[in-house]
Amino acid sequence: MDVNALVPSLWASSVEREPDGVLSVGGVSVTELAREFGTPAYVLDEDDFRSRARAFRQTYAEVFGGLSGGADVYYAGKAFLCTEVARWVRDEGLHLDVCTGGELAVAKRAAVPGERIGFHGNNKSVAEIRDALDYGVGRIVVDSLEEIDRVAAVAAELGVVAPVLVRVTVGVEAHTHEFIATAHEDQKFGLSLSGGHAFEAARRILDQPDTLRLLGLHSHIGSQIFDTAGFEVSARRIIGLHTRIARELGVELPELDLGGGFGIAYTTEHDPLPPRTLAAGMAEIIERECRADQVAVPRISIEPGRAIAGPTTFTLYEVGTVKPVDLDGGAQRVYVSVDGGMSDNVRTALYDANYSCTLANRASEAAPALARVVGRHCESGDIVVKDEFLPADIGPGDLLAVPGTGAYCRSLSSQYNHTPRPPVVAVRDGVARVIVRRETIDDLLALDV
Ligand SMILES: *Cc1c(COP(=O)(O)O)cnc(C)c1O
């Protein structure tokens, strides 16, 4: 085992180990980054983010070009959003999903055109709906029957027609290479297909043409998905509803959103599909189902979050303490404590997620030792990387890099234990710059009255 080797699928494309053993990204070494910006820090490869975004947009446009005149890619902002990232999304020609007034405010500040914004959420406030319609968002994804009236009332007040999609629960829950298909779905999102609520929602929306315009149906079936088997079932079901609406209500809806959830590699156990394979698989399914139902193929949209943001970023930590612990059976585990933890990456504690990591400030010839990387918080579950082999000579002052932290780490971060949150540093062409600054203790104290 070579503890100095980098597995390319886990890292942003420009990350390398230099001949002197130091990790670099976009031509900037991590020792330089640590000196200039401190640790912990989220380090983001801008070109990698842009090229993943572009790959989704171009591939889906090409693959669906002949079928439905193209496809729209909505970056799911909840994975990671800040003003600069929203600008990249805008510049690369993607659309953007937001699900709160806060995320919408970021999109507005980044001048993302309203028509390219999709607004999600199962409990949007009237003020948020007003704000969204006032900005001219391209779609509001309706998540309950109450919300239909709420959106219609705000649209009437503003004198606009609100473009809406209906979020449908299709009874498919997909994760990794598995999916579960049931008749009913016991969850808060969406309107049920089997219970008839989704059809009823479509009927009610179509009944109010002065205030609402029904663009289409929406389904999102899971996360960390590695094949199209779940989409096969969900597409059949949702196109079934699309067809029923055409037959019984006389409207062939122009759009269909298949959601996100495309997986990435956190460790070598994951083997994600390239966007092209994914797009081709989805196109084949959609074409087949629409042909079988004799309806035109609606314009397709998808909503990747993790698959764009996740691999672009690693978290850079400094090691503070190293503690060997004896395990039953005579083995040892080294607990490596870093200067962050569950406040900057809660996924291990929350989802039992697996990450990997590497010694970043030098290469080492020392033997590999079984290690667990833990944070500095007052919880024994404050684990960043459950199991990893690190060189046995790792010690205080070393830098450690954890890849795959671009999605659902900063966005799910907290100030637990009054810990100021790390900055996001974007690197490109040998230049590093802060795109979200580090929080300070003063920021935290400023909230106390
Ligand atoms: C979370 C979410 C996404 C993005 O999921 P990823 O796993 O990050 O791709 C897309 N659409 C909806 C509706 C979501 O809730």
Automatic annotation (TrEMBL):
The lineage of its organism: Bacteria, Bacillati, Actinomycetota, Actinomycetes, Micrococcales. Homodimer. Signal peptide: none annotated. The gene is lysA. InterPro entries: Ala_racemase/Decarboxylase_C (IPR009006), DAP_deCOOHase_LysA (IPR002986), De-COase2_C (IPR022643), De-COase2_CS (IPR022657), De-COase2_N (IPR022644), De-COase2_pyr-phos_BS (IPR022653), Orn/DAP/Arg_de-COase (IPR000183), PLP-binding_barrel (IPR029066). Pfam families: Orn_Arg_deC_N, Orn_DAP_Arg_deC. Residues 54-309 form the Orn/DAP/Arg decarboxylase 2 N-terminal domain. Its cofactor is pyridoxal 5'-phosphate. The modification N6-(pyridoxal phosphate)lysine is found at residue 78. Keywords: Amino-acid biosynthesis, Decarboxylase, Lyase, Lysine biosynthesis, Pyridoxal phosphate. It is an enzyme of class 4 (lyase). This is Diaminopimelate decarboxylase. Pathway: Amino-acid biosynthesis; L-lysine biosynthesis via DAP pathway; L-lysine from DL-2,6-diaminopimelate: step 1/1. Its EC number is 4.1.1.20. Specifically catalyzes the decarboxylation of meso-diaminopimelate (meso-DAP) to L-lysine. Substrate binds at residues 306, 347, 351, 379, 408. Belongs to the Orn/Lys/Arg decarboxylase class-II family. LysA subfamily. NCBIfam families: lysA (TIGR01048). HAMAP family: LysA. Pyridoxal 5'-phosphate binds at residues 261, 303-306, 408. Residues 315-406 form the Orn/DAP/Arg decarboxylase 2 C-terminal domain. It catalyses: meso-2,6-diaminopimelate + H(+) = L-lysine + CO2.
